[in-house]
Each structure stands twice: as C-alpha cells, then as structure tokens.
Backbone:
C-alpha cells in the first residue's frame, strides 16, 4: 500500500513562493516562502491568527492567495480554477480542526464518502472502510453518528476519512487542539503510523510544541508494530524527516530542525518551549 | 489627537475616517451589487448543474420529501380554511344581489390564479427556505462545506442543485393540492353557510377556469420554487458570524424569500394577463 502512496514528482511536494493573503481586516501572511519535500513533515507553529490554517487551506486550494504561488505535487494550485481543483483535491487528505464530519451521516458513510463520490463499487467500499477504521482503532463505531463520538474519536474518524483513498499529501489542522494528553498521544501515534507506514508528506498546524517533538523524536516500527524512540545518532527512518516553521507577524520567524528549535535561546521561541 | 481607551495604542484617529452619508450609501450599494452578483452566480451554477453530470438523485429525493411531503400538512390545513373564508367574505356580498351561485366562479378563479400559488409559495418559504438556510449555514460554520470541497465535491452541485430541482418540481404539485383543498373548503362553506348545492358550486368552479388561468396558476409556483430554494441556499452558504449568523441568515431567508415572491407575483400576473390576451 505504501508504494502506491509515493508521488512521481521529484520537485518538492509542497512549495509556497512569496505568498500573501489578507482579508478586510488586513494582511495575515506577507510574503511567505517555504517548501516541503516528499515524505517530510513540516510542523507549523504560531499563535492563534498567525495564518497556520490559512496556509493549509491554500495548500488544498480552498483559499487563493492574494499574490504569490502555491504548488502541490507539481501543480500550481493557486492558478487553478475550482473546476480543476475538485478532482485534484482527491490527492490531498485534510484533517479539519473540528473533524469536518458530516453530522447527518454515520461514521461508515462519512469514511466511505470519497469512495462513493468516485463511484467505487459497494462491495469494494466496505472492506476499505473497515481497513481504515481498524487503522484508527474505531471499527466498532461503524453505525454511530459523529454526535455520538468523543472529540478524540471524531478526530480519528477524520483521519480515517482523509486516509481512505491513500493520498500522498495530508494536511492536519490542529489535530490535537482541545484534547486531553492521552487522546492527543493517540492522535500523534496515528500521524506517526501514517507517516512511517504510508509515507505521506504532511503539513501539520499546531500550537503544541510537544506534538512536533513527538513526531521528530519517535517513529513507528513496522516490525514491532509500535512507537519507538529514534536512535541517538539520527532519525530511525531516514526517508522521513520533521522540520519546524514558526509564524509571527505575517512572516516566517523560524525555520529549522527540531534540535535547532530545542536549543534556541530566542525569547519568542522559548515561549513555545515552556 | 489623544487615544481613546478602546483604541489600539499608537494608532491615531484620522478625521477623514468619518464617512459621509454619500460614502455610506455608496458602500451599501456596492455590497448590494456584490450580493446580487453572488446570488446570480450561485443560481446560474445550480441551474447549469441540472444539465450536467454527476447528479445526486438520492439527495434530490430526500429534498423532495422534505419540501413536498413535509409541507403537505400545512398546505392541507391552510388551503381548506382559505377556501372557506373566501366563500364567507364573497358570499355575503353576492347575497345582496341574489347571486350567491357566483361564489364558485370567484373562489375558483382567485384560488387557481392567485391565492393558491401565492399562499403555497409563502407557506413553503416560511417552512423550507428557513430550513435550508439553517441547515446549510450550520454546515458552513462547522466546516462541513469546506470538508466537502476538500474531498473533491462541488458544494453547489451536492447541496444547491438537489434543493432547487426538488422545489421546482414540488411547488406546482403542492399548489395543485392547495387549489383542490381550497375549493373543497369553499364548497363546504357554501353548502353550510349559503345553502348552495355542492354540485352547483363545483360545476361553476370548473366552468369558470380557462387554459390561461391554469397556465398562470402553474407557472407562478415554478418561479416561487426557484426563489425559495435559491434564496435559502444563498443565505445559508453566505453565513458570517458563527451560530448567531445562522439565526440571522434563517430570518433573512424567510423575509427576503417572502418579499421576492410577492414582488415576482405582481410581475408574473401582469405578464400572464398580457400573454392570455395576446396568445390564448
């Protein structure tokens, strides 16, 4: 399955070039440039309202930048019309902060939504839905409605929904926001598994630094089938890497490796480390 | 100029920020033009989607059930009493000239041409345009519409077009039921209060109608269905301000939908009378 997830492009999976975006109340992002390599996870950190969610929505083509270019999987999404973007978005998984689940559909129907849109035969849908729900350990919730689930369970269903057609890129919008530490850990473990088992490229917006360090310092061991700490001499899975990017005042304040972030003496960055 | 306690520190109040009446009116006019443009685009896309694939038949059937079958009780109850009250009001006038048998003609013409479509439009707008606006508004504020787009589904095709098709099909049917039940109410009222024969009432009611009356009576609900579905969807999909905004959008959908139906009714009546005169 992992093989089918890899993208054929050699260029960065996601790249932003001098991107500006603003609304009536002013410009939120002013000239942001960065890129994310294949199988890399970029952690977007920043206070509320600094443009983390906007970045994710621009990467999915849900919002257009005021200026600049956004490229995902070799396509310039910032120049594509909505009609072209609709089929393209099927290559991108998006985990919304509140789950973004359809409250009138059961868990099974929510997860199967994309497949039904693609007119996949019903006999093929059921095993695939069960497979991804087993992945997020929610195979017993098939017939429940989203309102009957806890916040953490809804987030896990949302991950299953994003995963159903094996997208090469997944965008996570504050996946652990408002969750207790244990549930947050479950979500991070799922993200680790998705990265190490399926090899997805990810953009993860969060205001919890510990999420980023968990992704940087741990990996999911496919043989042991559990999360293990990385070896001291480097990442245990060299194909994947995790980097941090901190937003402040409409721009990128810091960009770098987890070690640089952890050892930084910058007072603003230290506020995240406390 | 000194900062007020509510001002952001360091930002001075500019005297020119005080907008003149002309500027305020100009801004309001621009917003209105932009709204009309957005509404036209949404309606145009929804109409165009009817003729292109993919179609959401299941969603359309569900909406037909919501708009059609769901509105049946209020249509039946209102229709009966509208017919009955018309006979009571007109019968007393006809009684002065000894022409109570004409009540069948009047009730039939008024119901089929005007009251049936208008009351159906207004009642279904009150029930369904508000329901559509609140449902779509809630979906928007809980990111379900964005989730839909993120999964490669066109929200207009999935949410607006099925509601539009359902309203276009259901409103004429509901109007036909409203007309029939109204005549039944009128008949009951004639028999019990004016001592008219039921057979005489029905004969006159049916004879009074021309093809042009039926054309008028069944063209109007199609237009009213278009108005209530598109206004409900437009207000729902342009919600601003969370759950409070959903409440506001729901009220606006009812008010704007009803007003537009009454305005459209006047123009459609004039057009129908002109066509009846020239064509039929």
Residues:
């Amino acid at each position: 399955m992992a093989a089918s997830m890899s993208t054929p492009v050699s260029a960065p999976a996601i790249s932003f070039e001098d991107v500006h975006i603003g609304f009536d109340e002013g410009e939120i992002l002013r000239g942001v440039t960065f890129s994310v390599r294949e199988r890399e996870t970029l952690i977007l950190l920043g206070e509320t309202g600094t443009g983390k969610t906007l970045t994710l929505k621009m990467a999915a083509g849900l919002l257009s930048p005021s200026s600049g270019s956004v490229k995902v999987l070799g396509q310039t999404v910032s120049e594509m019309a909505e009609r072209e973007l609709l089929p393209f978005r099927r290559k991108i998984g998006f985990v919304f902060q509140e789950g973004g689940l359809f409250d009138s559909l059961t868990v099974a129907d929510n997860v199967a939504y994309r497949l039904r849109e693609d007119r996949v035969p019903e006999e093929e849908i059921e095993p695939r839905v069960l497979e991804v729900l087993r992945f997020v350990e929610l195979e017993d919730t098939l017939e429940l409605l989203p309102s009957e689930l806890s916040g953490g369970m809804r987030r896990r269903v949302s991950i299953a929904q994003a995963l159903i057609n094996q997208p090469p890129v997944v965008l996570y919008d504050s996946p652990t926001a408002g969750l207790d530490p244990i549930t947050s850990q479950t979500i991070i473990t799922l993200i680790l598994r998705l990265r190490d088992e399926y090899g997805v490229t990810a953009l993860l917006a969060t205001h919890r630094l510990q999420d980023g360090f968990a992704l940087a310092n741990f990996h999911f061991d496919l043989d042991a089938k559990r999360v293990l700490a990385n070896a001291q001499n480097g990442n245990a899975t060299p194909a994947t890497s995790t980097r941090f990017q901190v937003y402040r005042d409409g721009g990128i304040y810091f960009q770098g490796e987890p070690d640089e972030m952890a050892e930084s003496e910058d007072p603003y960055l230290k506020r995240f480390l406390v | 100029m000194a900062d007020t306690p509510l001002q952001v520190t360091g930002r001075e109040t500019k005297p020119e920020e005080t907008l003149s009446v002309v500027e305020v009116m100009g801004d309001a006019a621009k917003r209105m033009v932009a709204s009309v443009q957005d509404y036209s685009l949404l309606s145009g896309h929804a109409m165009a989607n009817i003729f292109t694939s993919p179609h959401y038949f299941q969603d359309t059937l569900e909406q037909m059930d919501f708009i059609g079958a769901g509105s049946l009780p209020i249509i039946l109850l209102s229709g009966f009493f509208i017919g009955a009250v018309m006979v009571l009001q007109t019968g007393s006038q006809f009684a002065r000239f000894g022409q109570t048998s004409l009540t069948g003609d009047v009730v039939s013409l008024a119901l089929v041409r005007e009251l049936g479509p208008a009351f159906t439009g207004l009642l279904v707008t009150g029930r369904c345009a508000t329901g559509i606006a609140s449902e779509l508004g809630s979906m928007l504020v809980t990111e379900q519409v964005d989730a839909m787009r993120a999964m490669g589904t066109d929200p207009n095709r999935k949410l607006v077009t099925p509601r539009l098709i359902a309203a276009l099909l259901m409103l004429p049917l509901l109007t036909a039921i409203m007309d029939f039940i109204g005549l039944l109410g009128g008949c009951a009222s004639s028999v019990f209060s004016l001592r008219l024969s039921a057979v005489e009432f029905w004969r006159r009611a049916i004879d009074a109608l021309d093809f042009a009356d039926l054309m008028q009576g069944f063209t109007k609900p199609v237009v009213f269905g278009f108005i209530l579905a598109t206004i409900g969807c437009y207000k729902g999909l342009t919600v601003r301000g969370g759950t409070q905004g959903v409440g506001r959008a729901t009220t606006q959908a009812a008010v704007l939908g009803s007003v537009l139906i009454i305005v459209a009714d006047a123009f459609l009546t004039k057009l129908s009378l002109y066509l009846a005169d020239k064509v039929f």
Remarks:
- Chain B has a mean pLDDT of 90.
